[in-house]
Design brief:
Beta-Lactamase, alpha+beta, 8 strands, transcription, 2 domains, two-stranded antiparallel ribbon, Arc Repressor Mutant, subunit A, six-stranded antiparallel sheet
Length: about 280
């Protein structure tokens, strides 16, 4: 903890940590896995390196996790939906806090996890380097030509409009529930990856401009927008839980509201990344 806490902006490999602490690789792996589950450290799935986690920061500033409550409450009131703030923790996305209610969808509370595997978490990888996007997509196995083409187009569209749209289908509800259960320990295993792959192959992911149209209606589960940290990496996101059928104009309006809230939080982070305790 002292090693990572003294270098909060740096990542360390397992081998480097074990060498510095003079412990075996097996012991180091067990310790780091446990720490990652409890948010003390964060594991980067692209590099397999470790850095200090959000739980360390919360000790230094116990009010930091609630800094954005007013933003979430305002968004919930404006959209009439439940909204939540999620943060990236290694290979999973963890809901940090929520506001509002969704009468048409599942109740979502703090602590719930979903895996950061394709096709989920698109807003987290849309701005990433091509090799990171490739690793994210291929973590579920070699994608079909059609799926690779679809995801390339979708990630480009997310970068353009600033938010991701999750379609509401029976398959989504079932897979989402299963993935949350499978990712409860913070690990993404082969079963999780295969389930995500089946969902990606059997459903239409997100909505492209030509599908959105001007007057068409769509069943929407959630709309999410990314929040970057000082380095430009996407580490958090804001989500509106829609879980109903809405027209194209409503999707655009909701997307813009979510995107604007994410931008406001992003600006606050940039201006005051390490607030003092109040």
């Amino acid at each position: 903890m002292e090693l990572l806490g003294a270098n909060p902006d740096r990542q360390f490999t397992l081998a480097e940590i074990c060498r510095r602490l003079t412990i075996s690789r097996a012991t180091g792996h067990v310790i780091l896995t446990t720490l990652a589950i409890h948010d003390w450290v964060t594991r980067d799935p692209a590099t397999a390196a470790y850095s200090w986690g959000p739980a360390i920061a919360s000790l230094a500033n116990p009010t930091s996790t609630h800094r954005y409550r007013d933003d979430l409450q305002a968004l919930a009131a404006a959209t009439g939906t439940q909204v939540h703030l999620s943060r990236r923790q290694g290979e999973t996305l963890v809901i940090d806090q929520t506001a509002g209610n969704c009468l048409t969808g599942p109740r979502i509370g703090p602590g719930l996890r979903t895996p950061l595997v394709a096709p989920f978490g698109r807003e987290y990888v849309a701005w990433a380097a091509p090799d990171v996007q490739k690793a994210w997509l291929e973590a579920i196995g070699q994608p079909s030509v059609a799926l690779r083409r679809r995801m390339t187009a979708i990630l480009k569209e997310i970068r353009t409009r600033g938010f991701a749209v999750e379609r509401l289908t029976t398959e989504y509800l079932r897979v989402y529930t299963a993935l949350r259960a499978l990712t409860g320990d913070g690990e993404v295993d082969a079963i999780t990856a295969q389930l995500a792959r089946a969902f990606a192959d059997l459903t239409v992911i997100d909505v492209l401009p030509e599908e959105l149209g001007d007057t068409a209606s769509h069943s929407v589960a959630i709309i999410s927008a990314p929040i970057t940290d000082g380095s430009g990496a996407v580490m958090m996101s804001v989500t509106a839980a829609v879980f109903t059928t809405v027209d194209s104009a409503r999707i655009r309006t909701l997307g813009e509201q979510v995107r604007r809230t994410a931008h406001d939080i992003e600006t606050r982070i940039a201006c005051n990344p390490h607030p003092s305790i109040v």
